[in-house]
Amino acid sequence: MSAVTMEATTILPILKKKLAFLSGGKDRRSGLILNIPLSSDQTSMEELSATLDYLLSIPSEKCKARGFTVIVDGRKSQWNTVKTVVLMLQNVIPPEVSLVCVVKPDEFWDKKVTHFCFWKEKDRLGFEVILVSANKLTRYIEPCQLTDDFGGSLDYDHSDWLNKRLVFEKFTKESTSLLDELSIINDADKSSSMDKDKSADCALLPSFDPETVLQTGHELLSELQQRRFNGSEGGGGGQGAWCPMEEELLAQPQVMKLLDSLREQYTRYQELCRQRNKRTQLDEIHAKVMQVVTWLQGPGSELLKTQQTIGDSIRSAQALQQRHEEIESQHSEWFAVYVELNQQIAALLSTGEEEEVAELKALQQQLSDVCYRQAAQLESRQNVLQAAQGFHSTTQELSQQLDGLLGMLCADVAPADGAAIQQNLKLLEEKLQTVEAGLTSLRQKGALLLEQTCSQPSWPLEETESPTTEQQDSVQHIQSVMEDMQLRKQRCEDMVDVRRLKMLQMVQLFKCEEDALQAVEWLSELLDALLKTHVRLGDDSQETRTMLDKHRKFVDVAQSTYDYGRQLLQATVVLCQSLRCTTRSSGDTLPRLNRVWKQFSVSAEERQQRLELALNFHTAAERVRKTLLNYEVDSLGKTLLDRLTMPVIFPDGSEQFFGSPTDTAAAAEGVRERLLLVEERRLQLQEARLHNDGDEREEEVFLELEEMFKVQKGIRNKFHSV
User: Fold this and answer.
1) Does residue 224 contact residue 250 with C-beta atoms inside 8 Å?
2) 537: closest CA among 357, 404, 666, 354?
3) What angle do CA 682, 683, 688 make, to 5 degrees?
4) What's the CA gap between 557 and 534, in Å, rounded?
5) Residue 238's Cα: distance from chain center in Å?
6) For residue 413, what are the contacts with CB-CB under 8 A and spacing of at least 6?
7) pLDDT of residue 444
8) Which residues of 440-467 are buried (b: 16+ CB within 10 A; e: fewer)?
9) Rounded Cα gap, residues 384 and 85, in angstroms
10) Per-position DSSP letters for 7-36, written without gaps between them
11) Which DSSP letter does residue 311 get?
């Protein structure tokens, strides 16, 4: 096809006037039919000439070679205008024009004059001009190739043709320009790919959107294939298979060729864009990877290297932890970039080429190594700070516990009794156990902190000097704190031992005082029992002797109690001297003990003398059977009776009787009965001797007296029990 030298857009107002048009109809030689509908208004020859130039530039050379038939519709125009148009055709119509049909009106024109004029100008015009009425036009052209203006059946819509022509020209212009641009871009990229050191100096973005141009072309091609261009649906009559639009007026081959070329260049361009996008994506990934690596190995590492201490207190450790969290927050942003890059690299690895895969894997490995190494440094630092906080917290707690224990040890101990001392001693032991547990926990956390500090991941060789020094300082600080706590605990233990000994001595002191008081109470009870219950003197010598033995044992018990109390009081004196304190025993308990003991001694002595006197009495009474005259019994009995009526006089001048008056009266009655029996026996013995009854009678009387004495003894025992 010949290139269009004129565009419809440049003369669009003129084309809209429909001064001339190609209806798509053909003459009997298959030549194109050019219609020039003249109107009653004055026709501008310049506009008509421009219209004809544009229309005649559309058909191909092959189509032009078959010639043209021009129909000048002068039915609504003046003869002079028609004549001017016909004469103008010789300048704009190619030589292939063989016939010009001037459709004349049915009247007004002089046929002879007009026919003669055109015949006269035939040689000069170069084509035949005939005047024909509209109903006779079918003699030269088939009705199916004529529009309805001339009684034909060919449909033609000038507005539709003009719109389609504008679309076609726009597509042709845009596709041609796009093809040139894509060709330049593709060729430039090919040359740049051969010379990698030389970058392509071309625009990657074409002037038109290829997708839009392709869509426009496909829509246009679809319209052309339906033969609606210029409003024609194909031939009529008996020539339905003939399609004049396919090769002459319709631009299907040109559109199809443009579409094919455009698809080819666009496919290459898409591949180019894909490759460049991939290369750009690789470059961006590489830049981001290097950005992450540079920050982590640069500012990130510097931040971590400046944070190697563990602090000297819980507050400083917390401040370091807060600073570390800020550093972690900064690292988290870069780690998020790392995760995103890793995902992008993983996606590219599945679709990349071998060379790209190797490059991506190298970038991925480098990025992973740096990120994991930095993450290990962060985690190690976090573990160290957590261990440091635990260590400093335990140190602070242990220090407070030691201060509390020391304060308790420095305070004066003034307990009220042994139970209070035991309670204080228990509290002291509990505090000491708490300190011991705290020190054990401190050792464990110190060992963990030392391990965490010494096992931190190392930095590159050129960066290891500063961290090593700080690690050594941290280790020395940890060991110093643990040694200091151990010394403080040892000092407290020594003070606890002294305090424990003192408190145990105080417990012993209170115990001795309590036991001494108990000894006084026991001795008082023995004295009370001696005075109130030890009244009987026995009914015979054997019973009195038994009571005398029991009395001696009773006195021995009291003596032991007194000696025990004296020993306890002596112990309290020694403990008070050791504790440098006063005690109640030295001013109160000892005089009481001595006073009670003296009273007991006097009472026991009196009781013993009475028992010994009663024993002598009973012994003398029992000897009466062998001796008739025995005044010793009477003397002893009277002495014993006198002794029973006498009170016990204590050293302080106070007096105390044995038992109650009833008990004393019962004991005296027993002595009197004994004396009475002795007196009766003496009288019987005297009478027996007077009657010379001899020794046998005396024995019988004695036995009777003894039996009578036993009966009286039983009655007296019942009396005492009552």
Assistant:
1) yes
2) 666
3) 100
4) 15
5) 89
6) 421, 424, 499, 502, 503, 506
7) 92
8) ebbeebbebbbebbeebeebeeeeeeee
9) 105
10) -GGGGHHHHHTTSSEEEEEE-TTS-EEEEE
11) -
Please give the structure tokens belonging to residue 607. Answer: 């009781």
- Per the listing, tokens 């990130």 go with 300
- According to the 3-state scheme, what is the secondary structure of 442-475? HHHHHHHHHHHHHCCCCCCHHHCHHHHHHHHHHH
What type of residue sits at position 622?
E
CA nearest to 252, candidates 230, 223, 231: 223
CA–CA gap between residue 139 and residue 151 (Å, rounded): 12
DSSP state letters, 351-418: T--HHHHHHHHHHHHHHHHHHHHHHHHHHHHHHHHHHHHHHHHHHHHHHHHHHHHHHHHHSPP--SSH
* Nearest alpha carbon to residue 72 among 93, 57, 54: 93
Per the rule left: phi > 0, alpha: psi between -120 and 50, beta: everything else, 409 is alpha
| pLDDT value at residue 190 | 64
Instruction: Give the helix ranges, DSSP H, for 67-209.
Output: 79-92, 111-120, 122-125, 158-194
Task: Output the CA angle 588-591-594, nearest 5 degrees.
Answer: 145
pLDDT at 570: 84
CA atoms within 13 A of residue 566's CA, in its CB half-sphere: 10
Q: For 614-667, what is each residue's pLDDT tens digit?
A: 888 778 777 765 554 455 667 777 777 777 777 777 777 677 777 677 777 777
Contact 449, 429 (CB under 8 A): no
CA atoms 159, 165, 167, 173: torsion sign: negative
CB 368 within 8 A of CB 440: no
Tokens 């001899």 sit at which residue? 694
610/636 Cα distance (integer angstroms): 11
Question: How far is 261 from 253, CA to CA, in rounded Å?
Answer: 12
Other Cβ atoms less than 10 A from the Cβ of 330: the count is 14
pLDDT, tens digit (0-9, with 9 covering 90-100), for 204-227? 677 778 888 888 888 877 877 775
Q: How confident is the model at residue 250, as a pLDDT?
A: 54
∠ Cα 202 204 206 (to 5°): 105
Measured distance CA(48)–CA(52) in Å, rounded = 6
| Angle, vertex CA 424, rays to CA 423 and CA 428, nearest 5 | 120
CA 718 to mean position of chain CA atoms? 96
What is the rounded CA–CA span in Å between residue 717 and residue 712?
A: 9
Residue 174, CA distances (Å) to 80, 194, 216, 258 in order: 43, 30, 10, 10
Asked whether 102 and 82 are in contact (CB, 8 A), the reply is yes
- Convert 592-601 to b/e letters by CB count within 10 Å (16 or more is b): bbbbbbebbb
Q: What's the pLDDT at 504?
A: 82
Token pair for 614: 């009663």
Q: In what order do the strands lie in the sheet with 21-26?
A: 21-26, 32-37, 68-73, 97-103, 128-132
CB 594 within 8 A of CB 652: no
DSSP-derived secondary structure for 463-506: G-HHHHHHHHHHHHHHHHHHHHHHHHHHHHHHHHHHHHHHHHHH
Strand duo 21-26 + 128-132: pairing: unpaired
Dump pLDDT digits (tens) for 60-76: 777 777 878 888 888 88
Point out the residues of the chain with pLDDT beneath 50: 1-4, 112-113, 116, 196-203, 228-248, 461-466, 585, 628-629, 694, 708, 711-712, 715-716, 718-722
Predicted pLDDT of residue 429: 86
Report how far residue 483's alpha carbon sits from residue 615's, in angstroms, rounded to the nearest whole number.
Answer: 83
Rounded CA separation 431/664 (Å): 65
